[in-house]
């Protein structure tokens, strides 16, 4: 089975993604979840869940923020409400949230999502023994390492195949602090479109924004692994995430549709180079003009990754 997981920025887009053929919608509220295209409240999550289940689409809710003292007391009631709504699973990165889920016996499956920390089968299996039904793999794993990891895990492991890759997060408002220091207040939200570059490397373009969870910095290029999908099927990594945080509106829906075509072709055994090239060209055309695409760490030699 191949599972396509896609973010949603609105109820309308969620409906369009369901009709496009996604298997799972990834949504949440920014008080509890990280780097969401839109922060949905519980009422909106319930509405999307009803629509999704009507179309046989699952719902995964992000609860993967690090819960400090100002938030931890709210987590239990939030998880209980998600269980009442009937969401299919939650993504969790903070062991404290897992502890609450277990000690309060809240009937919600969870996947372990510690972002860049999830790099080994032993780590995944550690959390499987503690109830995890899946895991979100780090974006920095080359294919040669994925080949070693995949046979050693017994649960689905999600891999990003399209979208932006976060490379750094700080709980501190780093950009706001900078603007305050130079006495030039600026909007530091995602909509502002800020980026930073390395000295003497003008081609670098690290998107940066701030929200309730602090400062988030993204890789210069977004990820497109359409050329690697067949390899992923061969090693059994078939839970694929499509991230729309910087690809808004109908363009993201159309890109998701292209991955649905790829999924169906792979399952039908009719995948070929011609179709791959056609889909790749369409993805590039739909992708935001000011954002580049590449294969990220997927094609790197593991010895080159530090």
TrEMBL record:
GO molecular function: 3-oxoacyl-[acyl-carrier-protein] reductase (NADPH) activity
Coiled coil ranges: none
EC numbers, comma separated: 1.1.1.100
Keyword Transmembrane helix set for record: no
Enzyme class at the top of the EC tree: oxidoreductase
Keyword Metal-binding among UniProt keywords: no
InterPro entries to which the protein is assigned, alphabetical: Peptidase_U32, RNA/ubiquinone_mod_enzymes
Keywords in alphabetical order: Oxidoreductase
PANTHER family: PEPTIDASE U32 FAMILY, U32 FAMILY PEPTIDASE
Official protein name in the record: Peptidase U32 family protein
Gene: fabG
